[in-house]
Structures are given as C-alpha cells and as structure tokens.
Design a protein that fits this description.
Helix content: 40-55%
Number of helices: 25
Largest sheet: 6 strands, mixed
Strand order of the largest sheet: 12-13-14-10-15-16
Shape: flat
Strand content: 15-25%
C-alpha cells in the first residue's frame, strides 16, 4: 500500500478520535471520568496509546460511538481467543523527526525503530486472513507502515544488544582487525614490565590498566623516574603513579588513531541508516499513530475484562417534525434508558451494590429520594459515568442487553461532600451552575442534578426545584434528580413522563441498602431512626402529632408496599435459582447418559468390526482349504458344516447395534422364572430364579450367579428333552443338575502326598462335573512345585477337563490351577 493511501486511512481514523464533539468538561470531572481514563491508560503498552487514552472524550456522534464500541468488541473477542498486542513497539516519532532533520540516531534508537516495524509487520500478517472476522481492527491495521527495508538495514549493522557489527562495512572490519592486532602487540610489550623481576617490584600491582584512553601500568611513587615514561595520572593518596613507558608511546598512539577511525566509521554507518529512516518520516509517524489507535482498542478490551463489562446497545436520538429558529421540534422521541445491574466502575467490585435503572417507556425524568448517605449521589454518578463510557467506545459494567441513548451533551450539578473536589457548594454556587446549564441544554441533553434546590429555605427551595424540573420537561431533556423535598415526590407522582425512585434504608441496622427502586418514593425514616437511637417516646409522639395523619398513613402504606415488593422479589429469586439449578442438573444428566450410550455403542461397533475381520479371515481359510481339497480330489462335505457355522456367525456380526434398552426389553419378554438358560460367558446351564430390568439370577447346581440378560440364551423344551435323551443313550452324559450335590467351587490339596492328593482331586472332579459346575479351583500351593506338576499332569487329557490355566493374581497365582470342565 502506498504511503499516500496509508495517510488517508490514518487521517480518517484520527479525525474521528480527535475532532469529535465532546461533553461538558466540568461534568466529566464531577463524574470522575478522568479516573476512568487513567485506569484505561494503565492497560496501554506504549506511550503513544497512553496519550490517546488520556485524551479520549465521549462523542455525541451515534455513528462514531457505535464504531468505537464495535472496535472494543472485536478486540475483546480477539483477545479471548489468543494473546495479541503491539509487541515491542515504541513511540518512534521523535526519532523519525530527528532523522528527517539530518540527525544521527544512536544504536538503541535504531533498535526501537526496528522492533516497532517488526510489530507492525507481524500485526499485518496476523490480520491478513481475518478481515471478515475483524473488519474494524483490520481497517486500522491497514494503516500500519511497511518495513521499507529498514528492518534488514538495521539488522545488517547492529546486534540485538545494540553493538555495531564488524560486517557493517568492509572499512570497519579492517579498522577493527588492525586495532586488535595493535592492542595485542601493545599488551605483549606491557606484560614484560609486569612480569620482569627487575620492574615488578616497582609496581603497586602487576596489572595493565587505562587512563584517558591510553594503556598504563601502576608505578609506586617512590620509584618515580626509575622507568622512563609519561605520567598520566596518580591515585588519590599519591602513592601510585599511572605511567606510560616511552617504548610503548608509539604503539599507544597507533591504537588511539585506530579508535578514532573506528568512531568515525561507526558514525558514518549510523548516519547512513538514519537517513533511510528520515526518508520515511511521514509513514512512520502515521504508522505509530495507527498503532496507538489499535493498542487503545486492546486496552479498552482489557479494561472491559477487568470490569466484567458488557457491550451496551446505543440508540440514536430521533426527532420527528421540523424545528424553527428558537423553537422546539414538533415531536421528540423519548430516549430509551435501560441499565440492568449497573455497577460504579470505581467502587470495589466486592462492595458495590448493582442498581437497575429501567423506567417505563415515555419517562423523561426520574426523581430519586432517600436518606442521606443512602447512595443517591452514587446512583446519579453511575448513570452519568456509564453513558460517558459508552459514548467513548467503552463497554460498561452492567448486564448484557443494557440500552442507552446517545446524548449530544451531558451536564451535572453535583456539589455535596461526595464530589471529586470534596467541596460543599452554597445555594448561589448551585444556582449559578444551574443557570449556565439551562442556557445550553436541548432535547438531546442529559441533565443530572443532585439535591436540587437545597441550601436555602425549604419552601422556596422546593418551589424553585419544581419550576426547574418543569422547565426541563418542556425542553425535552432527560433528567435525573436527587432530592429530599416531599413536594417533588408529589410532583413526580402526578406528572406524566416523571417517575419516583427511592433508595432503601434498613431500620433494624440503621444502614442504607443502596438498592434503587423505581416507582416508589423514598421515606426520610427520621422518626424511626430517632426512636431506634433512643429519643424519648414522648418526644416521638409529640413529633407525630405535628405531622399530617394522611402523611403518616401514606408512609405506612409505602412501607407495606415496599415489604411486599421485597418479599415477592426474594421469592422470585429463589424460584429462578431453583429453576436454573434444575435445568443445569437435567442438562448434566442428559450429557452423562448420552456419553454412556455413545461409549457402549462404540464398544459394540468395535467388537462387530473385529468379528467381521475374523469372519473374513475364516472365509479366506475355507476358500484356501476348498482349493486344496479340489486339488487333492477330496469331498467337500467336511467343510459344509464349517461354512454353515460361519454363515450364522456372519448373521450375528451383521446385526445392527441396538440400544441397550431395546435388548433388555426383548430379553425380559423372552425369559420367565424357572426357565432353563445357558450363561454364555460361563458356557453353563441353569435355572432362572430372579429377574430384573438389566440382569437375572441363575442357579447353576448349588451355585447362584448374577448375569446380564444379554448373556443368557433361552433353551426350548424340545432341546432340553433331546439333550436328556442323548445323555441317556450315551450313558456318559451329564445327569440332571439337581440330582448331584455340588462339592463347591474349589478343592484344597495342600499338605497331602501326591498320590493322596490326586485321588482326592479325581473324586472332586467327578462330583463337580456331575453337579454341572463350569469351572473349579484346585489349591495345591507353591512349595517346591512337585504337587503342582503332578496335578497339572493329571489334568492334561482328563475326561472331565476341557482346559486349565494358572490362577490369576487375585486367585492365588502359582498356588492355584483353574480347570474348566466339559459340558455334558
């Protein structure tokens, strides 16, 4: 991008920042807005953006204010996703100005230029592909300068520590090489003085040092003249003379000449690069100012995060009809003001009490009443400060969705002890300031008056306050007023577009709650407070007698309304919390159930995939066997049975993975108490003795086991009868499970001789087989291993045993053998 285009972009951005209309400066000070800017400046990374932050003012332009807010929103979104900033950038405008006037920049100034240009380059690269996601920030980044070869030029001559490199120029490399040779020659000659036995005793220390850029040795004063030399310096005590022996004077002169030549060449190199910087002074200055605007956006985002702020919705003030000179518009739209859970940004977040300012549509004035130190002034400042922040492009410390009008101007008269200057204004001071404000406001203004009409006779003060409030309504300005006058409460109650508001006071603790309530006027609570503090009851009764009974009844009614409203609010909060808690628990439970079901389905799908692989391997083996049998001219009937089993296996594998609930329902419908089933995991038959939704209890012999319904296979009556007939015909089948008593799941052979142990094991195996046990544990102990060897030799090929294995770590390990029995 050309420097001219960069300048145009920057000019448009900075004109928005610097030339926008501003609010009343006195009001900004009263609202403590400068403190907000100081905190904002603390989040900036370099001085140029700090200057912008401290100069930031609210704008009356709705377009500009919304653009600023959008910048903050984009920056906040970007920072939430990754750590981004202006890096090691510096305000290099003074350096660029100096270079443009022919000045020579020192190495550290050039390194600042380099790091700033690198930051600009990195930012442009980062936003290159994000223009659609961050359009406003990208527009600012487009105004950052190119490197113009300056980064390479500075890197070529300077190290990261700011040292000029030998490679900066061939001449400099030659000078430094000659300088090193000359220094080595000189040091060799001087070393002879500090090591020679004749001269070393004359030296204060055997070292070579420097004085005024020349190499010298420290001679003791009493040996002055013993060595022909030039004296350059002496110690403070006079005991040591720093001398340059005459034989090394020429060598020192040569070194000095080379040092001067090195200095001149280094200056020439720096001047050359500085001239390159000066050629791009305009682009660099524009770039720094763009960088400051970008850093300010990041600072606003960081400040918003600290405040836990949200993006406000800013509405433009619309005017319908025409406006003649000196007259008001024929129709003025009422601005929308809706601030939910607003917090004063300068009060500790742990202590501040949020307030809601959400008057009904059509409201132009809010009259706040309540006790002293109850929070009226803080409430007024909170609203004014949040509006100033929003029109400055800052996010506000309030709930998301808060809506604010974009006022053309904001004016405030707050002169109590809670103001910034801690000054107590007199009535005349108040009126003087109010007169100034009334002359310049219009329907686009926000007016904030604290203790309107105070500081004079209450009756006259109330009359003046009502008249001023009426005038403000006629101008169309939105107004927030804090007062103690009951007349203004009545005025607000009976005037369209005006609403009462109050700050609550806890009579029990004698402390304000700082909670703002719209729609109800405040009570002074003077009698209640005085009574609680111990004022005699007779005086309290006399005071009540002086008050209009209707006023006392109204106060009592207000108190009852407030209590009922608070009770309803608390109940609503409880219900809301309970509803949120229930919704959260429901969502968590649904997620957990979904996760469990997904894991189960994944496991079954994985098992099916493994089964498919096994079937494919088996199919391949069968095809291979067929081929071999064909070659050998052998019948293929032997493979048909295997193929039938494989087809059944394929059908089972290809079954869709059903949800667990569906499988359980099918099994529950199929099984009944007393039915004979096969436990597939044990390969053993038994009777169903108990059923539940997910599993069943099965009696296998005298052993009762729990098994999942999916692991049980129902046996038909025909199959049971057929199995009994086959066992009867063969004479060697397993008898009825209930006909033989179970010998238990294990037999202990420890302590017996091998022959006796094998006899005992043989009887036990026969009884276990007849009782229908699927497996047994044979305990032989570890010992020398002879009994274990004998037991396993006997089990190998045993008629009742299909296989055996060493016990697991929890079953006894090498001291136990687990034998699986054949099925009948």
């Amino acid at each position: 991008m050309s420097s001219l285009r960069s300048a145009r972009i920057l000019d448009s951005i900075l004109s928005l920042v610097y030339n926008a209309p501003t609010m009343d400066s006195k009001t900004l000070n009263v609202l403590e807005y400068p403190k907000i800017l100081e905190r904002l400046a603390g989040f900036c990374d370099f001085s140029a953006s700090m200057e912008l932050a401290r100069a930031l003012e609210p704008t009356s332009s709705h377009e500009l204010a919304t653009a600023r807010i959008a910048e903050t929103t984009e920056a906040r979104k970007l920072l939430s996703m990754q750590s981004t900033g202006v890096g090691a950038a510096h305000d290099i405008r003074p350096q660029a100005d100096l270079a443009s006037r022919g000045g020579v920049l020192d190495p550290h100034a050039l390194l600042d230029v380099k790091s700033t240009l690198i930051s600009c380059r990195d930012l442009k690269k980062a936003f290159e592909k994000r223009a659609d996601e961050y359009p406003r920030l990208t527009q600012i980044v487009l105004g950052l300068p190119e490197t113009y070869g300056l980064v390479d030029a500075i890197t070529r001559i300077l190290s990261d520590r700011g040292e000029i490199l030998d490679s900066a120029s061939p001449k400099l490399a030659d000078i430094r090489r000659n300088l090193r040779v000359a220094q080595d020659r000189l040091m060799t000659r001087l070393q002879k003085y500090v090591t020679d036995a004749k001269t070393v005793s004359m030296l204060q220390e055997p070292i070579v040092t420097q004085r005024d850029g020349r190499y010298v040795i420290p001679l003791r004063a009493e040996f002055k003249g013993k060595i022909k030399s030039i004296i350059h310096d002496q110690s403070s005590s006079g005991a040591t003379l720093f001398i340059e022996p005459l034989p090394v004077v020429e060598a020192n002169n040569e070194i000095r000449e080379l040092q001067l030549a090195q200095r001149d060449e280094e200056r020439r190199i720096l001047a050359e690069v500085s001239a390159q910087v000066g050629e791009h002074v305009d682009e660099l200055k524009y770039g720094v100012e763009n960088l400051a605007v970008l850093d300010l956006a990041f600072a606003k985002a960081k400040y918003a995060e600290e405040l836990k702020a949200s993006e406000p919705v800013l509405h433009a003030l619309k005017v319908a009809g025409s406006k003649l000179e000196g007259s008001q518009p024929s129709s003025i739209s009422v601005p929308t003001l809706k601030i939910i859970e607003a917090r004063h940004p300068l009060i500790n977040s742990q202590q501040v009490v949020p307030i809601d300012v959400d008057p009904a549509p059509g409201t132009r004035a809010v009259v706040i009443t309540g006790p002293n130190t109850g929070g009226k002034t803080v409430s007024l400042k909170t609203v004014g400060l949040l509006i100033a922040m929003a029109q400055s492009g800052l996010h506000i410390p309030a709930q998301s969705g808060s809506e604010l009008p974009c006022f053309h101007s904001v004016y405030a008269d707050i002169g109590d002890e809670q103001s910034i200057e801690q000054s107590l204004s007199t009535f005349s001071g108040h009126i003087t300031n109010i007169i100034r404000i009334l002359k310049i406001i219009d329907h686009r203004s926000l007016v904030i008056f604290d203790e309107l009409g105070s500081g004079t006779d209450p009756q006259e003060g109330a009359a003046i306050a009502r008249a001023i409030l009426s005038h403000l309504l006629e101008t169309g300005a939105m107004t927030l007023v804090a007062t103690h006058y009951p007349e203004l409460k009545t005025f607000a109650h009976g005037t369209e577009g005006v609403v009462n508001a109050s700050l609550e006071f806890d009579i029990k603790t004698l402390r304000p709650t700082y909670k703002l309530t719209l729609g109800l006027p405040g009570r002074s609570n003077a009698l209640a407070i005085a009574q609680r503090l111990g004022l005699p009851q007779s005086i309290i009764d006399s005071a009540k007698a002086e008050i209009n009974p209707l006023d006392l009844r109204a106060d009592k009614l207000l108190d009852d309304i407030r209590k009922e409203r608070n009770r309803t609010s608390r109940e609503r909060e409880k219900l809301e919390k309970a509803r949120n808690k229930l919704e959260t628990q429901t969502r968590d439970l649904e997620k957990r159930l979904e996760k469990i079901e997904d894991e189960r389905r994944d496991t079954l799908a994985k098992a099916r995939a493994e089964g498919e692989l096994e079937v494919a391997v088996l199919k391949s083996n069968i095809d291979s066997m067929k081929s071999q049998l064909k070659k050998a001219s052998q019948p293929l009937q032997a493979i048909k049975a295997i193929e039938e089993k494989m087809e059944k296996m394929e059908e089972k594998v290809e079954r869709p993975v059903e949800r667990k609930s569906e499988q359980l329902t099918k099994n529950n419908q199929a099984l009944k108490l007393g039915e004979r089933v096969t436990v597939s995991t044990l390969n053993a038959e038994g009777l169903v003795t108990a059923l539940s939704e997910s599993d069943a209890e099965v009696q296998i012999g005298t052993l009762r086991v729990r098994a999942r319904l999916s692991d049980l296979v129902r046996k038909s009556g025909e199959q049971k009868a057929e199995n009994r007939d086959q066992r009867a015909e063969s004479g060697g089948g397993r008898t009825s499970v209930a006909s033989t008593k179970s010998p238990g799941m294990e037999v202990d052979l420890r302590g017996l001789m091998s022959e006796d142990a094998l006899d005992k094991m043989e009887k036990y195996l026969e009884q276990a087989f007849l009782s229908g046990l699927p497996f047994v544990r044979i305990i032989h102990g570890k010992g020398t291993g002879k009994l274990r060897q004998a037991v396993r030799e006997a089990l190998r090929g045993h008629e009742y045993v299909s296989s055996f294995e060493e016990g697991g770590s929890t079953e006894g390990g090498e001291g136990v053998t687990v034998a699986k029995l054949k099925s009948g």
